[in-house]
Amino acid sequence: MSARIIDGKAVAADLRARLAERVRVLGFAPGLRVVRVGDDPASGVYVRNKDRAAQQAGFNSATLQLPETTSEAELLAVVAELNADPEVDGILVQLPLPQQIRADAVLRAIDPAKDVDGFHPVNAGLLATGQPGLVPCTPKGVMHLLRAAGTAPRGARAVVLGRSNIVGKPMAALLLAADATVTVVHSRTQNLAAECRRAEILVAAVGRPEMVRGDWVAEGATVIDVGINRLPTGKLVGDVAFAEASAHAGAITPVPGGVGPMTIACLLENTLEAAIARRGLAEN
Ligand SMILES: Nc1nc2c(c(=O)[nH]1)N[C@@H](CN(C=O)c1ccc(C(=O)N[C@@H](CCC(=O)O)C(=O)O)cc1)CN2
Ligand SMILES: [Mg+2]
């Protein structure tokens, strides 16, 4: 079998266009503030892309750039200001942070109602207990991609490779909420390949270049590759060996152009949701 390619760029562009139209109809500009600390070059690219996508969709977006030497207390003070600012609907602190700052302490300080990354323990708890809240952008984007691919999670065997708070755990919760039968596997799991081979939906989010080989993929499975790994050659690859896996999968996301663009589109979706909820508006 040669897999269908799930075009994340196109799905993200479509979502961004629909969000822009909703913003136009609502008649106000949702406020987004992205905080970048230091000069990690990849973060620079992501933050610029977020800002540009937000502005193109009619959001009131700005990036706050802080020096690499920023202390945790200084960053917490910036977060407190944004929490108190009525013009701000969404706050996102770009990760990774410099080593003198505890990311957990900063993420916990963000007002959960403005936590458009969905990383605050309150939002994580709401998701884990099946209640409405702000959902992390990358797993939310994966759910959009499954819909676009025509892959229904209900009753399907889903395997999530990776157990991070940012992707693996919320991904498992979302699939479970969509009635999939979910298994989470990780570096300590025995027989990883055999576990993955059982999946009708396989989500790889482990951060190891091309770890998932062709014979880990069941015939006809939908494979979603969350990994974005830069090889020493400069080439960007996912957690899945794309050519090998494509020979078995029914549908597969590429890297680049798969999950990555959805992360940014879903950030806009979350910011719009936060703006609507903060204003007590209900859309019809
Ligand atoms: N606060 C957060 N920090 C980080 C997150 C996050 O969701 N919230 N995720 C990643 C980085 N990230 C967004 O911030 C992100 C990474 C990659 C892409 C993307 O579109 N990638 C492209 C390829 C880009 C390239 O050429 O390098 C693709 O996959 O097509 C978007 C967002 C860590 N930090
Ligand atoms: Mg991503």
UniProtKB/TrEMBL annotation:
CDD domains: NAD_bind_m-THF_DH_Cyclohyd (cd01080)
Pathway: One-carbon metabolism; tetrahydrofolate interconversion
Domain Tetrahydrofolate dehydrogenase/cyclohydrolase catalytic: 6-117
InterPro entries linked: Aminoacid_DH-like_N_sf, NAD(P)-bd_dom_sf, THF_DH/CycHdrlase, THF_DH/CycHdrlase_cat_dom, THF_DH/CycHdrlase_CS, THF_DH/CycHdrlase_NAD-bd_dom
GO molecular function: methenyltetrahydrofolate cyclohydrolase activity; methylenetetrahydrofolate dehydrogenase (NADP+) activity
Domain Tetrahydrofolate dehydrogenase/cyclohydrolase NAD(P)-binding per the UniProt entry, residue ranges: 136-276
A single BP term in Gene Ontology: methionine biosynthetic process
Cellular component GO terms, alphabetical: cytosol
Binding site for NADP(+): G162, R163, S164, I228
Reactions this protein catalyses: (6R)-5,10-methylene-5,6,7,8-tetrahydrofolate + NADP(+) = (6R)-5,10-methenyltetrahydrofolate + NADPH; (6R)-5,10-methenyltetrahydrofolate + H2O = (6R)-10-formyltetrahydrofolate + H(+)
Presence of the UniProt keyword Amino-acid biosynthesis in the record: yes
EC number(s) on file: 1.5.1.5, 3.5.4.9
Keywords assigned: Amino-acid biosynthesis, Histidine biosynthesis, Hydrolase, Methionine biosynthesis, Multifunctional enzyme, NADP, One-carbon metabolism, Oxidoreductase, Purine biosynthesis
Quaternary context: Homodimer.
Family: Belongs to the tetrahydrofolate dehydrogenase/cyclohydrolase family.
Function, in words: Catalyzes the oxidation of 5,10-methylenetetrahydrofolate to 5,10-methenyltetrahydrofolate and then the hydrolysis of 5,10-methenyltetrahydrofolate to 10-formyltetrahydrofolate.
Protein name according to UniProt: Bifunctional protein FolD
Organism annotation: Teichococcus wenyumeiae
